[in-house]
Structures are given as structure tokens and as C-alpha cells.
Give the backbone structure.
Amino acid sequence: MGTVEGHHRFAVRGYSRLRALLAAGEYVRSAAFTVGGYDWAVVFYPRGATHADRDHAAVYVQLLTDRAAAAATFDLRFVRADSGRPLSVHPPLAAPRTFSTVLRSSSAAMYGVKVEAIQALQANYVRRDRLTIDCAVRVVGKPRVSAAAPLTAADVPPPDLAAHLGRLLDLKSHADVTFDVRGVQFAAHRVVLAMRSAVFAAELFGPMRNNAGGAIKVGDMQPAVFKVLLGFIYTDTLAAMDDLDADEDDRRELARHLLVAADRYDMGRLKLICADMLARSLTAQTVASTLALADRHGCRGLREACVEFVIAMGMNDEVVISRHPDQLNCISLFKYFFYQIGSLLKIH
């Protein structure tokens, strides 16, 4: 059977004042200390634990742990005022005492002893109005292991990095590069652009960077498209598109131009988002031009969505063929594919 031992020193300060203020049965208690997984305290009665013992001080060991039981021995000692040596105030215990707080009875939770007369105590152990008590507790048996209470999750606010970067763009704080998009000026930050796009990194920091100063001209893009592109670079959202007063057709057209811009600046995530927007807004009038766009910019998923749309609608080649000459090669490839699978699916 194992034993765990612990020690605690309790300094009772203002001894004379406590004797004057406290009556028999009233006590002072030390801070809690832990031995064997249980919390304990030293309890000192300056005028005795009962009225009958009011001429003798008393000192006890108390189990503080709620709803627990422990077998333990103890050794209570007063530190002599002249030598500083601790001397036991009771004979050694022959057997462990069973401390218990299960029934919430103070008598079961405390064991102690009546010590010598108050006058002798004061003469031998009180120095500078302070009495020092040493306590050794030995818990017999398996140590108690308390289940750790789960930590309460902190109420952490959602990430706001994108919001801060968005404000940085809107306020133009510390901007160090300007773009001229068909006469409209856009201020930005080189490091943010380079961080988000390898193409911007090469243009702004590579060997081909513009060292002449002044605004960087972007002539083959609409200002509205470049504004949405910048917003996505800073916030990873298309909130700037939502701010535009645009109907469904205008938003579809903007998504087409934004896909081209995403491909140009090697922004894969934005390119996929635009392709998904176009795939979800296909019509009989736009499927041919969208297929051509997907073919030019390597959007496999968008290309497959166009094929599935045509098959689902049961469209024939006259409906599919676009009037735009730059799409005829793409459409001819599509017609060949369509006729091949159409014979199997009995669409024609």
C-alpha cells in the first residue's frame, strides 16, 4: 500500500490579538495545500475547540476536498521560539485516521489534538506575536486523481484579415503603385499583388518591371473588371461585384471578362469561381460563346458543363453554331463531338 507525504507551514500572525478576539470553538485556518490528490488545511483554535478546553489551545488537520474520503496520518508540530526547531505536540499515531467529507460532517473531516496550556504555549512557541505550526500529512493508499474540468472555449471572433485588407485598398493607405485602366486610376500595394499573383510579382518586381515610374497602363480591360479583380486579390471575395448595379446579363458578361483576367494574372481560384458562375447561368443563346471561352482559356469543367447543357436541352447544330467567326473552329469541334455521342443517345 503506497503512501504520499506532504508538508505545510502555517504562520499564525497577531497571536495575542486572535486570543483576545476569538472565543472557545472559534478558529483560524491556513491556506489549502494538496497531498495525495486531496486538499487539506491546518485549523488552529487559540482558546480551545470546546468551552471545556478553553484553557488549552488546539490544532487540527482538516480534509477540504468535497465528497471525498482519505486514510491518512499526520504530525502536528510547533516551532520553538528559542531554537526554531519544530516539536511534535502529540504522540505518533498508531493507525491512519479516516477523513471524510461524504456526509458533510465536520467531525469526520477533522482530526487534531489539544495542546499544552495557553501560558506555556505562549512562552515556548510565540515569537514576535507569531506562532508557527508545521504539519506533515501522509495519505495511505492509491493517490486520488481528479478529472480535469474541460476548459471553456474562448469566444474568438471570426477572422478579419480580409476586412482589414479591404479597408487598406479602399483607403489607399501606403499605396505604392497605380494602374491606369482606360483612364480610370487604381491605387494598390505591390507586395499584396505580388503575394497573390505570380504574374503581378514578375511585372512589379521581376527583370521586366516598370522602372520609369508613373501609372501602369492596362488597356485591354474594362475598369469595372479591374476593380473586381483588385477586390478579390485583397479580400478573396467578389464583394465588389455585388456592389455593382448590374442585371443577370451584365453579371454574366462581367464574369466572362473576369475569367479572362484571372487567366491572364494566373489566379486559379478566381478562374474556377468565374467558370462556375458561367456554368450555372448557361442559356441557349450563350452556350456557344461560353464553350469557345472555355476552350481558349483551358477551363475543362466549364467546357464539360456546356456539353452537358446542350445534351440535356436536345439542341441541334443550327442552334449551337455561333455567328461569331472567332468561335467557328471551337464549334466545329463541338459539332463533331455532338454528332458522335448524339447517335448513341438518340438525340438526333
Observations:
- Confidence is low (pLDDT under 50) at residues 316-329.
- The two ends are 90 Å apart (CA to CA).
- Residues 3-140 form a domain with the Apoptosis, Tumor Necrosis Factor Receptor Associated Protein 2; Chain A fold (CATH 2.60.210.10).
- DSSP finds 14 helices and 14 strands in the chain.
